[in-house]
Amino acid sequence: MQLPFTTLDAFTSTRYTGNPVAIVQVPASISPSLTQAQKQAIASEFNLSEIVFLHLPDEGTASTERTIEIFTHQAEVPFAGHPTIGTSHYLLKTVGERVDTIITKAGPIPISVDEQTGNVRAEIPQDFHIHEVTYKCDLNAKVNSTISIVKGMSFIFVRLESLEDLPKADELKNLHGDTYDPSSLDEGWKVGLVGTMYFVAQGTDEFGRKKYRTRMFGSREDPGTGSASSGLGCYLAGLERKETGKGPIKFVFEQGVEMGRRNVICVEVTRGEGGGGIEKVVLSGAAVTVMEGKLEV
Q1: Tens digit of pLDDT for each residue in 134-174?
Q2: Dihedral sign, Cα of residue 42, residue 48, residue 53, residue 54
Q3: pLDDT band at 276 (very low <50, low <70, confident <90, very high)
Q4: Which residue has the higher pLDDT, 289 or 241?
Q5: How far apart are CA 21 and CA 94, in angstroms?
Q6: Residue 97 clears pLDDT 90, i.e. is over it
Q7: Which end of the chain is least crowded, N or C, by CB within 10 Å?
Q8: Residue by residue, what is the 3-state secondary structure of the chain?
């Protein structure tokens, strides 16, 4: 059995930068027989941060929704940012499908193309939660918060004072240690993975977006992490004065520079009435196709 695949570099318009993702097309006739073990083996073979299994509708049917499954090289995850952006770009721009929603294990994600920038936008599922557990870090001598953007995708956020401090993250990497051990999280949240994102404020850009340079470490360093960036956007939006209102508060995160794979990740966070809580999170970015092929199952 052969399955076609396409690889894209997400959060960039320049090939061989950004964060690569593979999208494996799974026909409806094959979908029920493709096992979890087979999907994990395929993901491990690609050995990327994540890959996507895109489940196609029955032949002859028209649907504006597509179901996807996202796997790291070690486990399935309910949501991840660069696979979402890569898949959205593939559906809307590479093959020109009339699709407005992708369905993930974390929930439905409305997708569209931004008419001004040409980038894809995804209104991501979010259940923003700040955990009780914190982590000390020698790089900032502070107690650093742990958050989840959705159940299963959790991150420690470490604020650094200058860009000179970012290379030092190589020494510490993921403060959590075992990326796939969520036992330190709050009750009801002990699933998925825990990574560490280091961030440095860089002022605002010409569009009024708050700029940050970031690095993220899980079991290894990730070039561009949309889920962590979305969570960081929510965390930072929560620190803004409530008097500033709902927003949206706009951020641009630059990640992967140290790896030679620069990512530009845009996040818009709309808070609840009175500036409290999180109402909506929109993740956006560019992508570019790189390779096509077929794999054997």
Answers
A1: 999 999 999 999 999 999 999 999 999 999 999 999 999 99
A2: negative
A3: confident
A4: 289
A5: 14
A6: yes
A7: N
A8: CEEEEEEEEECCCCCCCCEEEEEEEECCCCHHHCCHHHHHHHHHHHCCCCEEEEECCCCCCCCCEEEEEEECCCCEECCCHHHHHHHHHHHHHHCCCCCCEEEECCEEEEEEECCCCCCEEEECCCCCEEEEEEEEECCCCEEEEEEEEECCEEEEEEEECCHHHHHHHHHHCCCCCCCCCCCCCCCCCCCCEEEEEEEEEEEECCCCCEEEEEEEECCCEECCCHHHHHHHHHHHHHHCCHHHCCCCEEEEEEECHHHCCCEEEEEEEEECHHHCCEEEEEEEECEEEEEEEEEEC
Please check whether residue 220 is in contact with residue 193, taking contact to mean a CB–CB distance below 8 angstroms. no
Q: Rounded to the nearest 5°, which phi and psi values hold at 245?
A: 90, -165
Tokens 């979908």 map to which residue?
A: 31
Non-local CB neighbours of 274 within 8 Å, separated by 6+ positions:
242
Report pLDDT for 62.
Answer: 82
Q: Are strands 249-255 and 51-55 parallel, antiparallel or unpaired?
A: unpaired
Tokens of 238: 């929560």
Query: What value, to the nearest 5°, has the Cα angle with vertex 13 and ends 79 and 296?
Result: 55
Over the stretch 241-275, which tens digit does the pLDDT of each residue have?
888 889 999 999 999 999 999 999 999 999 998 88
Q: How far apart, in whole angstroms, are the C-alpha atoms of residue 149 and residue 227?
A: 7
* Amino acid symbol at 233: G
Is residue 10 within 8 A of residue 22, CB to CB? The reply is no
193-204 vs 153-160, strand pairing mode: parallel
